[in-house]
Amino acid sequence: MSMLLNLTDSAAGDLSLTGGKGANLHRLSAMDGVHVPGGFVVTTEAFRALCAGVVASQGEALRAVSTPAELTRAGDEIRQAIRDIRIPEEFLRELTAALSSYPSDALFAVRSSATAEDLPDASFAGQQDSYLNVRANHIPRAVMNCFASLYNDRAVAYRMKNSYHHEDVAIAVVVQEMVPAQVSGVLFTADPMTSDRLTCVIEAVEGLGEELVSGHKTPFTWRLRGEKIKTDSKTAPPLSDSGAQELAAIGKRIEAAFGAPQDIEWCWADGRFSIVQSRAITTLYPLPESHDGLKRVFVSAGHMQMMTDVMLPLGMSFMKLIALLRMEEVGGRLYIDVTHDTKSAYGKKMIRTKLSATDPLTSQAIEEVLARKDYIHSIPKGPGSFSSFGGWLPMVREGMRHYRRNDPADIDRYIDRMVNLVARLEKRLEPLSGMAAIEAIMEDQKQLSKIIYDASGFGMVLATQFILQKIDAMGKILTGEDHISNRLSKSVEHNPTSEMGLALSEVADLARAYPAVVGYLEAAGEAFRMEDLRHAEGGDAVADAFEKFLRQYGMRATGEIDISKTRFRENPAELVSTMLTNTRTLPKGHGKASFEQGRREMEALIEELAALAQQKLGARKAKKLRRYISFFRNYVGTREYPKYFWICRYDVYKRALMREAKRLVEQGVLREPGDIFYLYLEELRETVRTGRVDYAIIDRRKKDYAHFATLTPPRVIFSDGEVPEMAYQKDIPTGALPGLGVSSGVVEGRARVVGSIEDAVMEKGDILVTSFTDPSWTPVFVSIAGLVTEVGGMMTHGAVITREYALPAVVGVVGATRLIRDGDRIRINGDEGYVELL
Length: 838
Fold this sequence. Notes:
The chain is α+β, with helices and mostly antiparallel strands. An eight-stranded mixed beta sheet has the order 16-23-22-18-19-20-21-17, with helices on one face. It has a six-stranded antiparallel beta sheet with strand order 9-8-7-6-10-11. Strand 22 and strand 23 form a beta hairpin. The protein starts with a strand and ends with a strand.
């Protein structure tokens, strides 16, 4: 076969011959109304004919690399060996013949086209080399450089990360006549940032697109949805609005032909658009399914639960078994279908009540959906998700009883009852194995919802929420302050989450008394072992205290609602950095002292509010306010207990599951214990029963879920791919990042952008910036000056705990971990809800 193929040749559509870019350009060349500059492809057959010997001799060294330095060295060697290949005369004659039809002074673009590039599920974009404005006599050398770039460090590392074998990948080279572009850019036929399939995004610069790709020029950006066109760019546009709309229409035709949203490179010259590349956008969030063809609307359960990480299949199984709401798995996360809830008054009320407390942007998006009268009218009657739970009445009755009694002893009785239920479960599961263990867990799961949503426990939560509204209403009248309850939440009893942070600070207080212990903790890091700690002077005392902490809180984990997540008791090393931060930055007894100081401040605030109420509202309402506040402060911490006991039971399940996983490894059924997390519960049950598992399923899911982990889940998404627009509407300083202020105060400090609790090495005055927090993060809060998260609302974890610890906090800051760099100096305003980069 010829080493060269014209782009219009039917064989050029063969991915194995022309690579992803070449095959896509062939398809584009065949489309009516789409102009593609003329050119040809140096095929993968040419690559193999010229480079096979080098690849065979050097490939073994590349496969053996284990460090970045080894990768760089092996890559350098194979690239240089390819560049040193003597180009055969026969190949040069073919190139000369192909170029003879172009003007002698023509310039060409010479671009790599790997067989693992521009694919529907992995773009591999930008990993191999391209050359612009190449003269005909320099093309042979440019082709060999492109061949060598198949072994660029980035390309090799990406293939290794994504389990592509180097020997399975080949490379072709596309040679096209350069277009003297007046304007160039990229067109996304769906918004790559929000995953909205109804919005096209165009970025454009004057001149060559290389200026955009390299970052040398700031592009002019349009967003087009239907007939609407928007831009935030302040400079003169390089294209007219009508030109942008014409380009978007071309893009949509290409999207339809390719069957997926596209990332398209284009240029404008001589009065027309030329398309020079098109590939699938691989970063879009998957679409939820509509089983009946109705345009359905889904809300992210992760944003409501403060856990937007991927949840593995076993975790999905457990969540679906206890969920009160009907949930669908989308992209490794859970979504709630609220379509029919938008139709009923009760459903709307429940949506608004839940979302307003958990995530303001989600709430805003749903309000925009609810305002679409034509859409709401088109929805037929059907069972809602929020409206499917009928257990509120017993909770309300219990809440009223708790309010009338206002007796913290009722909380203690509830706690004792829940602790006993966990102990009984543990005693029941401990001796079981095999099918008996799995079936016992599945049977207990049927009761778990009743335990989590216990009428007495949840009644306390509902009553507190009701009283909170009463307090805030009176506080607004008395002081003009919104959400006075935020300040009244400081230093309360009966909160297992805030108490966890104080408990770990006491372990740190004990550790600071023993320099050898602190030295071991600093040296150990991720290699921490409790038995090694005991070898240090004072280590026994600290280890005993640490183990006592783990007996009470070791079931907690980041993203703990996913049973597959590693618990503190499984890896206590996660807490070492937090303990060290406490010993370095806080005085001994800081936790207790701060709690007592907060209690005194609250007593003074209560007296101040009562005096104002007496003065402005009279004695009767002042007495009522005191009663409201007394109940609120006695019971507000109990909102954490249902989840605490839920996670306690999860931990008992997980101990039993891991015993089974280890047994399956010993039997040779599983390769490693963690593989059970990639099976749904019914699949695990079948594996235990039969002693067999399909590893093709596990391996595929590992790859799928690794990809899902790179995606950003939309807060709200329709089944047709629409993502409603959402943005904060507030007057804030120029350049500030908007969010929701959930704990009052203003603080400046160094931003520590942290992805996981074990990386939370903080210094005094640092501000924690992370995607979300859940109860497992609470120990870190003892030592920080403020909090910024990408997800959250007034009643989510970070909000509640920062109020109790009197830390300024802003949550729901979209893109915070991307826009704020680790070490940046920032100011957060918890009163107005924004973050400034200083």
